[in-house]
Amino acid sequence: MHHPTTGSAPDLQITQTRFDYVQLLHMVEEKGQALYGPHYAIQEVDRALVMKIITYFTADEALAPKEGIMLHKGLLLCGPIGCGKSSLLNIMRSLSGDPKSFGMVSCRNLVTHFNEQGYGTIHRYSSMPGSLITGTYCFDDLGLEPNGSYFANNCNVLAEILFNRYEAFVHKGILTHVTTNLGPAELEATYGNRLRSRMREMFNLLAFDEQSPDKRR
After folding, report:
1. Are 144 and 181 in contact (CB under 8 A)?
2. What are phi and psi of 75, to 5 degrees?
3. How far is it, in rounded angstroms, from Cα 194 to Cα 202?
4. Whole-angstrom Cα distance, residue 191 to residue 198?
5. 1-21 residue pLDDT tens
6. 177 and 214 in contact (C-beta within 8 Å)?
7. What CA–CA distance (Å, rounded) separates 139 from 136?
8. Cα 130 from Cα 125, distance rounded (Å)
9. Pair 167, 155: CB distance under 8 Å
10. How many angstroms separate the CA atoms of 24 and 29, rounded?
11. Which residues of 50-74 are buried (b: 16+ CB within 10 A; e: fewer)?
12. Are 215 and 179 in contact (CB under 8 A)?
């Protein structure tokens, strides 16, 4: 897995694009204030990353290559605790229409459901043939969840789901998004090299700056 990049803000003077990124950034802040309160604002240290994410969700084919964004892949957004990963993707989810809309799923809650309901939970979110739900999901806080256990059968629930969703990505183009506090080496230690290799194919890897402040304070 390549190291995530923060990059620089788009040079809109050089790149011709049909989108008004100043207005879009303002819309993100307004939606953030509506969802999280009047204190919500895009910090300067986060601006370049937010611009990349806007580029992705607008499917801006002119700007995406310059920003290193592959529109056919999902997003893996990592960063320190409290930097605003989940809230930012939830804002984009609220602003987005099809086909970029997606559901947010807590990894910890998903494992709890597995412990209560069994392997149907994996089937439900895996986009496997016959699954009732085959859409795009963001798995929130990957790496913080415990292993699942159903009738004494231990299972790395998220690893199984992500392996299955990789197959759905390859064969059907179904997207997956992830937020995590873990870096590439930690993800490999938790989920293994085979999954890490597949994640290179599935995701655009983006990271908040290490200096990004804790927005929960």
Report:
1. yes
2. -115, 135
3. 13
4. 11
5. 555 544 444 554 445 688 899
6. no
7. 10
8. 11
9. no
10. 9
11. bbbbbbbbbebeebbeebebebebb
12. no
Cα–Cα distances in angstroms (integers) from residue 50 to residues 7, 67, 209, 211, in the given order: 10, 12, 11, 15
Is 53:206 a contact under the CB 8 Å cutoff? yes
Instruction: Retrieve residue 180's tokens.
Output: 């995590």
State which H helix or E strand residue 87 sits in: helix 85-95
Position 84 pLDDT exceeds 80:
yes
Find residue 72's DSSP bridge partners.
Answer: none
**138, two tokens:** 């963001």
CA 116, CA 167: separation in Å to the nearest integer?
26
> Model-level pTM?
0.87
> Over pLDDT 90: what percentage of the chain?
59
